[in-house]
Amino acid sequence: MQTGAPDRPGDPPTDHIEIEAPELAEILAGQVAGLRALTIGLEDALSASLCTCKPLAEDAVLNLQRIDYMRQALKDLEGILLRFGPALGWAEGQRLTHAALQETVDMKESIAPILTASRKGTGPTGAEDHPPSHGAGDLDLW
After folding, report:
1. What is the pLDDT along the chain (142 residues), one digit of tens a residue?
2. DSSP letters for 63-109
3. By C-alpha distance, which of 95, 128, 129, 101 is closest to 114?
4. Are 98 and 17 a contacting pair, CB within 8 Å?
5. Mapping DSSP to helix (H, G, I), strand (E, B) and coil, where does residue 97 land?
6. Residue 97 pairs with which residues in a beta bridge?
């Protein structure tokens, strides 16, 4: 189905994104992996900057534990998406739309890999204002 095409004859045109649920799960897993890599880098940088000559404040220890928890949670989410993503599918008549996707994010770059994947092999999707992604797990910070 192309963007703008009706789901069924007689239905009004929609702004569906041409992406299958397993592909969406794979892209999200890549993004989670990128976030986990950032968390590992943060954890390593903070650990390297610690000085054994000065004990850490209780708040600092708690924050380091929170970063470790975040790293583990991101790894778990990635594993869930990779394990169960291939079996996902859209319910009859339910597809991902541009409007719904854009309403769920604060940073439009978060959805750029999804929009890029939806353009592959299906023609334009009305999302040409988004720059192409460098890959599912790439995060551009600057």
Report:
1. 334 444 444 444 457 888 899 999 999 999 999 999 999 999 888 888 777 777 778 888 888 899 999 999 999 999 999 999 999 998 888 888 888 888 999 998 888 888 888 877 443 333 334 333 334 445 554 4
2. HHHHHHHHHHHHHHHHHHHHHHGGG--PPTT---BHHHHHHT-S-GG
3. 101
4. yes
5. strand
6. 16
Instruction: Classify residue 40 by burial, with Cβ atoms within 10 Å: 0-12, 13-18, 19+.
Output: middle
Query: Would you state the structure tokens that stand for residue 75, as one six-digit string?
Result: 């790894």
Judge whether 124 and 47 are in contact, CB under 8 Å.
no
Cα distances from 132 to residues 46, 99, 100, 125, in angstroms, run: 33, 19, 20, 13
* Number of residues that this document lists for the chain: 142
Distance of CA 133 to the CA centre of its chain: 12
- Alpha carbons within 13 A on the beta-carbon side of 119: 16
Q: Is the pTM of this model over 0.85?
A: no
* Per-residue tokens: 93: 């008549």
